[in-house]
Amino acid sequence: MHHLGVVHRTIDRADPAAVEALSRFGVATVHEAMGRLGLMRPYIRPVYEGATLCGTAVTVLLQPGDNWMLHVAAEQVRDGDVVVAGCTTQSEDGFFGELLATSLRARGARGLVIDGGCRDVDDLRRMDFPVFSRAVSAKGTVKATLGSVNVPVVVANALVNPGDVIVADADGVVIVPAARAAEVAEASARREAAEEGKRERFRAGELGLDLYAMRGPLSELGLTYVD
């Protein structure tokens, strides 16, 4: 177990070339290519339409109703990072808003994923600072209790280690372990190429029943057609 009140300044980030490669793919593709792993729970949603992000995780463990550690984390952010925040217990307060977004953007952050609340949504949309959160809430927070920065953290049922790759879009949020980033990017590219072949066949009117050779197994299970 890690202790509260710890900031790890040195983390191993995923290879930038692998992060760049992963940024070309959607969350569904990456999740499937990785063996159907890594998804956060679907209650984490973009706070405005069209938000997407891809970057390396700077992790934060927050206390409920307290955003102090987001300010502590800002100092650890480098260009290309995504701040990923979990909470010691469920909280939907508005931990994050336009001022913190301005601070994070100045550090080169690509966005925020938080298992908590977020506010100033119209400002974030205008800034095009992508946030994926559990809730939108105007409720403010205090700065009174210690959490930690750059420790392993569970966010919406997904384990996130500092330096992992975070990909988020309208379909959800997926975490790619740093060590697997290049391999998963290659698998994603192969999957997209295969899907393009299927897409062409579907466009030509072919049915999934034939494309996926489903008729035999369906018949064996006793599916019958009645006129």
TrEMBL record:
The enzyme's E.C. designation: 4.1.1.112, 4.1.3.17
Reaction equation(s) it catalyzes: 4-hydroxy-4-methyl-2-oxoglutarate = 2 pyruvate; oxaloacetate + H(+) = pyruvate + CO2
One Gene Ontology MF term: 4-hydroxy-4-methyl-2-oxoglutarate aldolase activity
Highest taxon above the source species: Bacteria
Enzyme class: lyase
InterPro entries listed in its UniProt record: LigK_PcmE, RraA/RraA-like, RraA/RraA-like_sf
Keyword match Lyase: yes
Subunit structure: Homotrimer.
Function of the molecule: Catalyzes the aldol cleavage of 4-hydroxy-4-methyl-2-oxoglutarate (HMG) into 2 molecules of pyruvate. Also contains a secondary oxaloacetate (OAA) decarboxylase activity due to the common pyruvate enolate transition state formed following C-C bond cleavage in the retro-aldol and decarboxylation reactions.
Family of the protein in this entry: Belongs to the class II aldolase/RraA-like family.
Entry protein name: Putative 4-hydroxy-4-methyl-2-oxoglutarate aldolase
UniProt source species: Streptomyces ardesiacus
